[in-house]
Amino acid sequence: MPGRDLPPGWSAWLRCGPMLQTGLVLLLAFVLLAIFAEQIAPYDPIAHNPNARLLPPSMAHPFGTDNFGRDVLSRVIWGTRIDLQIALIGVVLPFLIGTIIGTVAGFFGSWVDAVFMRAIDVVLAFPFLVLLLSIITILGPGLGSFYIAMALVGWVSYARLIRAQILVLRTQDFAVAAESLGFSRLRIMFRHLLPNALAGSLVFVMSDAVLVLLSGASISYLGLGVQPPAAEWGVMVAEAQAFISQAWWISFFPGLAIVLLAFGFSLTGDALADLLLVHE
Amino acid sequence: MRRYRFVLFRPLQLVPVLAGISIITFILVRMIPGDPARILLGTRATPTAIANIRARYGLDEPMWVQYLYFLKNLGAGEMGVSTLYKIDVLPLIATRIEPTLALVLAGVVLALVFAVPSAAISARRQGRASDHVVRILSTVAIGFPSFWLGVVLIILFGVNLGWLPVSGYGETVVDKLVHLVLPGLTIALPLTAVLTRSLRAAMIAGLQSDIATAARARGLPERLVFWRHVVPNALVPTVNLLAVNIGWLIGGTVVVENVFAVPGLGQLMTRGIFSRDYMVVQGVALAFACATVMINFLADIITVAMDPRVEL
Predict the structure, then answer these.
(1) Does B47 sit behind a cis peptide bond, omega within 30 degrees of 0 on the bond before it?
(2) Which residues 1-30 in chain B show a CB within 8 A of chain A?
C-alpha cells in the first residue's frame, strides 16, 4: 500500500488521486495569494507610474504593465482577493437560503411545496445573467447589488437538489423513528434529514462556484459590478480592451487567472462527485 | 400521433410560468425608487405626458389593478416607450432579434461541429492519451469567461492575423456571416466543453448497449456500429441539454454582444441599464424569458420526434 510509512495525513492525501490533488493545490494557491497579497505582490496595485506605461512582460514586470504603468502581476494577485470573495459569498448565500427552503418544502409538502416549486419554475424561466442584470438595474451597480441578486436568484438550484433528497429521506425508517420518538419538526428536518441530503449539493457547490465566478467577473466586465480602479479580473479585462492592438498582456493574464481558478473548482468538484456520489 | 398530444396540453401548463414571468417583470420596474410616471417617461417629461401615462397605466390605482393594466397593455403589444431611442419598445426589440438569434445559432452549430468529433475520439479511445486530452481541455474550457475568450480571439485573428472583423454586424448575408465567426466561436467554445462531456458519457454507454452488441453480432464493422447506432442515440439527450443550457447561452450572448459591439438584444439591454431606459430593460428581460420557455417546449417536441420511445 502506498504511503504506509508516511504520517497519517499524507496517506489520505495520496489516496485522493491526481484530479483532487491538482484541484486542491490550485484552490489553496489562490487562497494563499489572496491572504498574503500584500507580501507577495511586488508593486502597488493602484498607484500610477508614468515612467512604466505599457511595458511588455519582462523580468521586472513578468506580466507587463498597463496604460497607467501599474504592474499587471500585482493587480492579478490583488484581484484574487476580490474574485475569491465573489465566488465564496456568491455561493454561500444561495446555498444557505436554498438549503433552508428546500428542506422546508420537501418536509412539509402540500401547498408549501407547491408554492416554492412554482416560484422556482419562474426564476428558472429567466436566463440567469439576465435576471441578475435586471435586479442590479434596480439596486444600482456594485458588488453589494451583485450579492443581493445572487441570493435572490441562485437559491433555486440548491432548493431543488435538497428538496428531492428530503422527499426520499423523510419516508425512510430513521426519519419515521425520529418522528415516533416525538422529536420536534425542526430537529427532524435539520438534525436528521438535512445532513443526509447534503452530499449532492456539496458537489454542486464546486460547479456553482465556477458559474458565480464567471457571472461576477462578467458583470464587472460590463461595468455593473466591481468598479475601477479596483483590481478585479473582469474589470481589468474591460479596462485593457482599449489597448488590445498594442498590449495583449494587460487583458490576457487576468483572464488566465479566472480560467485557472475555475479549473481548480471544476477539478475538485469532479473528484468529489466520484468520491461522494459513486453509489448513485 | 398520440405521442404528440402534449403539444396541445403543454401550453396550458405554461400559463402559470408565463404569469409568474409577467409578475416578476412588473415588480422589477415598480421596485425602482422614484415616481413611476417619471421612470416610464424619463426625467424631462411634460405635465400633460405625465397625466396621460398615469391614466394609461392606472398609476393612481392599487398595485394589483396596476398589474392588470400592465397585462392589458402587454396584450395590446404595448411595452412602453424607450426614453433613449424615443420609440416603442416592441418594434425596437423586433429589430434587435436577428443578430442575437444568429449568434445563438452560430454558437450551437459550431459547438456541435466541434463536440461530436472530439467526444467520438474520446469515447472510442477511452482511457488513452487522446481521451485524457479531450477531458482535460473540456474541463478547462468550461471555465473560460466569454468576455476574455472574445478578447483573446480578437487579439489572435483580428489584431495579429487581420483575418476577421472584430466588431459590428454586416449589411449583406455574407458580410453578416463573416462578422459572426469570432462572436460565434466565443459562444461555442465553452458550450463545446459542456456538450463534449455529456456526449462522451452517452457514447460510452451506447458502445456497451444491447443495440451496439446486436449490430456487432450482425457483422457490422465497428465504424458503422458507432456512427449509425451509437451517435444518433447519443444526440437525443444533447437536444435536451442544449435546451437546459439556453438560459446560460443567452447570458453568454449578452456579454459577447458587448465585446464585439453586435447590435442585438443583449447590447440593447446593457445600454438600457446604463441609460436608465427601464422599459427597454423590462422588455428585453421579458422577451428573453419567453424565448427560454418556448425553446424548452420546442426541445420537448424535437426529443419526441427523434426518439419513438419517449412519451411525455
Answers:
(1) no
(2) 16-17, 20-21, 23-25, 28
Distance from CA of B311 to the nearest CA of A (A): 22
At residue A278 the predicted structure's pLDDT band, cuts being 50, 70 and 90, is low
B36 CB within 8 Å of a chain A CB:
no
Task: Give the tens place of pLDDT for each residue, B242-280.
Answer: 988 898 999 999 999 999 999 999 999 999 999 888 889
Using a 10 angstrom Cβ sphere, with 0-12 exposed, 13-18 middle and 19 or more buried, the burial of residue A5 is exposed
According to the model, what pLDDT value does residue A5 have? 65
Cα separation, B282 vs B80, whole angstroms? 9
- Sign of the four-CA dihedral A107, A112, A116, A117: positive
Residue B31 corresponds to which cell in the numbers above?
421596485
Cα separation, A38 vs B101, in Å, equals: 46
Q: In chain A, which residues have their Cβ closer than 8 Å to the Cβ of B249?
A: 127
A116's CB contacts (< 8 A; 6+ apart) are A101, A104, A105, A159, A163
Which 3 state secondary structure label does DSSP give A65?
A: strand
Distances (CA, A) of A43 to A62, B44, B308: 12, 48, 64
Chain B: give the shortest CA distance to residue A186, in Å.
30
Task: State the number of CA atoms in the 13 A half-sphere of A251 facing the CB.
Answer: 26
Give the single-character DSSP code of A227. P
What is the second-level CATH architecture of the domain B96-306?
Answer: Orthogonal Bundle (1.10)
- Residue-wise pLDDT tens digits, A169-216: 988 889 889 888 988 888 888 888 888 888 888 889 999 999 999 999
Whether A15 has its CB under 8 Å from any CB of chain B: the answer is: no
Q: Between residues 124 and 153 of chain B, which touch chain A (CB distance below 8 Å)?
A: 139-140, 142-149, 151-152
**B292 contact A CB<8A:** yes
Write out pLDDT tens, residues A93-112: 999 999 999 999 999 888 99
Q: Is the ipTM of this complex over 0.85?
A: yes
Q: Do B273 and A121 touch (CB under 8 A)?
A: no
